[in-house]
Specification:
globular, alpha/beta, 13 helices
């Protein structure tokens, strides 16, 4: 039983990773290739960033244009690329009301995701430091609906609040109140977005309960800190949702620009992986080995033929009688 007398839920994979490591770095990914590289780099979990998928799948900014079915579809492709690897998906508002939240989470669980981030930002979504949030009661209903669908499944629910961005004077206090309410309502962890300073990060670590998620966006308002620094402040998951996409975009700008200017890729070779290294990431040799193994094994058809040959030696041929 928990401290408030409710039944203790089984620990999810993400809980177990936090128990073992203390705090984990969770980089963002946006497709099957990026998550393969992420996994092979030695990380323990991945975040499918809504902003990153909106940019790479739609070519659009993070304004809520990406629909939940599109996000689920991309998450499914990512999970299939790295079976058994923990993947958390950003589902923003969940697609609408409580029924939309339930349907979205059911779909994510079926897709193989290990968790999601659900946020309290009001619709239509806005970027930047000025945002509005839905009433606390409305979001608490979403958490309850999500919790009902999740039950005892291995699925980690993060509740995000953007209340810090609603007021320069009272936003932080409201955000911490919400974070505690959301955790008490059944979220496995909370994320307070838009923190402005190291002091604000420390305050969240000191004045909120449960597991805490930090969001590190290069160029954003929150100071970039290491996972070790944030662990000392009381955080347990440290997300870098856009680092890989920003890096990939920089490389694409340079390579495409070089091709346009010179008509050759030679000046960009040092910033590229080799053909062999690229195939190693994709697991080409493993595919060849699997193909060779099964091609060398007699299939069901040859087994049937073998059995028929044995039967033919035992059964006498039927002869027609004239009587």
């Amino acid at each position: 039983m928990s401290e408030n007398g409710t039944p203790q839920r089984p620990k999810t994979t993400i809980h177990k990773l936090v128990d073992y490591f203390g705090a984990i770095t969770v980089p963002g990914c946006y497709d099957a290739l990026s998550v393969k590289i992420l996994q092979q780099s030695g990380h323990q979990a991945a975040l499918v960033s809504g902003a990153a998928v909106s940019a790479t799948q739609l070519g659009e900014p993070d304004l809520g244009l990406l629909t939940p079915p599109e996000m689920v579809r991309r998450t499914s492709q990512i999970c299939n690329s790295v079976p058994t690897f923990p993947v958390i998906a950003d589902i923003e508002s969940g697609g609408g009301g409580v029924l939309n939240v339930q349907r979205t989470i059911k779909s994510l669980m079926a897709a193989g995701a290990s968790g999601c981030i659900l946020e309290d930002q009001a619709w239509p979504k806005r970027m930047g430091t000025i945002r509005s949030v839905v009433p606390k009661e409305e979001f608490l209903s979403k958490i309850a609906a999500a919790r009902q669908v999740i039950g005892d499944a291995d699925f980690f629910l993060v509740a995000r609040t953007d209340a810090r961005n609603t007021s320069a004077k009272r936003g932080l206090e409201e955000a911490m109140i919400r974070a505690n309410l959301f955790t008490d309502a059944g979220a496995d962890a909370h994320l307070v977005g838009g923190l402005r300073s190291i002091d604000e990060l420390r305050m969240v670590g000191e004045h909120t309960g449960g597991l805490r998620v930090a969001n590190m966006v290069e160029g954003g308002v929150t100071p970039i800190c290491s996972t070790a620094q944030l662990q000392d402040m009381g955080f347990h998951l440290v997300c870098y949702p856009l680092s890989s996409l920003y890096a990939a975009t920089r490389t694409l700008v340079d390579v495409y620009g070089g091709l346009a200017a010179t008509g050759t890729s030679q000046d960009s070779w040092e910033n590229m992986v080799s053909w062999r290294a690229f195939q190693d990431i994709l697991g080409l040799e493993d595919k060849y080995a699997t193909e060779e193994h099964f091609n060398s094994v007699q299939g069901p058809a040859s087994n049937i033929e073998h059995k028929l040959r044995k039967v033919k030696g035992l059964v006498k041929p039927h002869t027609r009688s004239d009587n």
